[in-house]
Specification:
Number of helices: 2
Number of strands: 24
Function: Catalyzes the isomerization of 5-dehydro-4-deoxy-D-glucuronate to 3-deoxy-D-glycero-2,5-hexodiulosonate.
Largest sheet: 7 strands, mixed
CATH topology: Jelly Rolls
Helix content: under 10%
Radius of gyration: 18 Å
Structural class: mainly beta
Strand content: 35-45%
Shape: globular
Number of domains: 1
Cofactor: Zn(2+)
Enzyme class: isomerase
CATH superfamily: Jelly Rolls
Strand order of the largest sheet: 1-3-4-11-6-9-12
Keywords: Isomerase, Metal-binding, Zinc
EC number: 5.3.1.17
Length: about 280
Amino acid sequence: MNTLYKTRYATGPEAFKRYDTKALRDEFLIDNLMQHDKIVWVYTHYDRYMAGSAVPIKNELTLEAIDPLKAKSFLDRRELGAINVGGSGSIIVDGTTYKTDYKDALYIGKGSKKVVFKSDDAKNPAKFYLNSAPAHHAFPTKAVTKKQANKLELGSTETANARTVYQMILSGVVETCQLQMGMTELKSGSVWNTMPAHVHDRRMEVYFYFEVPKEQSVCHFMGPVNETRHIWLQNHQAVISPPWSIHSGSGTSNYTFIWGMAGENLDYNDMDTAKITDLR
C-alpha cells in the first residue's frame, strides 16, 4: 500500500486560546505532503475534509480507500479535486485519461472506481495536490485548465495585496456537491492574501502554499478576529482553517496558494469580512 494518512480532530476556539506554538502546528499544519511515490492524506473532522498529495515517480499511484472511510473504493461516498503543481502528468479515471499540466485541475465525481496518478517524466514528476469532501450525488468528472477558470483581479499594490484569483472547482465552472477549490497568485511586490480577512461559519477551509521562493516563508494568521495566532509555513505546506477562524497570510515574498473548502453553502461570497482595524 502506497498510502499514508493521519487523522486530525476538531478544535474549538476556547481550546485554541491555550495552544502554544507546538500545539498550533501539531493541530493545524500539514507538513508531510509531496512524498515521492506516495499518496499522503490528512483526514480532518472539520466537515470530514481531506487534504493530501500524490507524487508518482517510479510507479503509477492508485487511489486507495483508507480505513476511516469504511468504504471499498475511495470515492464511494466522496468527491475529489486535484491540482497539479509539478511537471506534466495524467490522471486516469475508470479508464479515461485526463492530461494535467502545471496548474491544471481535475474534478472527479462520486462513484468513480479506479483513479490512477501518473507522471510523464520521472525527472520532473507531476505533483498532485488533492482535496476531498463527502458527496451525496455523482457529478461528472471534469478537467479545468488555468485558462478555463473564472478569473478575478483583486487588491492593489498600494495595500500589498494585488492578486489574481482563479476559481477552478466552483459552482459556475464545475458542478460539485460541496467541494470548492481554486488558486490565488500574488503579484510581484504583494505579500498579503485574503485581506481584508474573513470568516465563514458554515464551511471550513485549507490553504496550500507553493511557489514560495527558497529561503522565504509565509506567516499564516488564524483564530478568532479578536484573538489571532500565527503559523510560519514553507513551500508545499498546508494549514487547516476551522469555520470560526480567519485565514490570511503574509509572505516575505510573493507566492501562490491553493484554497479548498467544503461545508453547508456553495456561495463563494458567503463570508463575514473582518475590518483590518478590528484584528487583534
